[in-house]
Predict the structure.
Amino acid sequence: MMKCDALIDTGRRAFFTRTAAVAAGAAAATAIPGAPAKAAPALALVSYPVMKLANVKDLKVNEPLDIGYPDGDSPGVLLKLGTRVEGGVGPDGDIVAFSTLCPHKGYPLNYSAADRTLNCPGHYSRFDCERGGLEIWGQATQNLAQFKLRVDEAGDIHAEAVDELIYGRLSNVL
Ligand code: FES
């Protein structure tokens, strides 16, 4: 057994020596004296589709319109809240859109016109539509994904991006 332990010890030391040499070599290769420092390249850039959701004339205050963005498998809701809000677009700055998949475990959210929240029937998380989908109660560990909108001259409402990861996705654009 002593011989066996000694062999294991020798092997372990050789492994650490080789690992240290590889690490030192890698560090030397990346740190070039006198070279200007460069910012790390951005990771996970997502190119979002631009998608027409509706026209301003299609919306009534406090009546949700079902939509899908960035694709048909990602349900959401388009809302005209009636008061200017964060991230709101349109002539009154009151049109917003959110994913309706709860960020906790993906249950479909229901809109409450009474307090302008999206509510989860699964474990009761609640999200404030007047404050950018801020979670105001519950189990979720992130706010609700809000869709970035733009309104053109004809009043058409286009979705152009998403500000949080949509539930169940590794990338918002598949
Ligand atoms: Fe919505 Fe759990 S799935 S709170």
About this structure: The radius of gyration is 25 Å. Helices lie at 2-30.
